[in-house]
Amino acid sequence: MSTQTLPEVDTTPDATDSTSDDAPKMFHYVRKAKIAESAVMGTHVVALCGEVFPVTKSAKPGSPVCPDCKKIYESLPPGGGE
């Protein structure tokens, strides 16, 4: 009976793996009342542009904004939000 040493296997994810970069590519406009609910409960929100997703990050000043959301938001009458 002989023993054999197995080669070491690298188990770290590749940099090209889509799960390694979880930063949103752009941020969307969402109803303010739904943001906290989504962040706490994990429910999905619907952006002005129609995209559906759970809230996982908050936008910082200078973050890229969805152009469709921005266009829709700017066409809304002032003071009509929640």
Quick summary:
Residues 1-23 are annotated as: Disordered. The chain is built from 2 helices and 2 strands. The protein has helices at 32-41, 67-75, and strands spanning 44-46, 52-54.
Oligomer: single chain
Give the neighbour order of strands across the main sheet. Answer: 1-2
Number of H/I helices: 2
| Whole-angstrom Rg | 21 Å
Report the helical percentage: 10-25%
Protein architecture, described:
With 82 residues, this protein is of the alpha+beta class. It has a domain at 25-75. The chain contains two helices and two strands, in the order αββα. It has helices spanning 32-41, 67-75, and strands spanning 44-46, 52-54. Strands 1-2 form a two-stranded antiparallel sheet. The radius of gyration is 21 Å and the shape is elongated. Mean pLDDT is 77; it is low at 11-20.
What are its keywords?
DUF3039; two-stranded antiparallel sheet; DUF3039 domain-containing protein; alpha+beta; 82 residues
What does the secondary structure layout of this molecule look like, with pairings?
Layout: H1 32-41, E1 44-46, E2 52-54, H2 67-75
Antiparallel strand pairs: 1-2
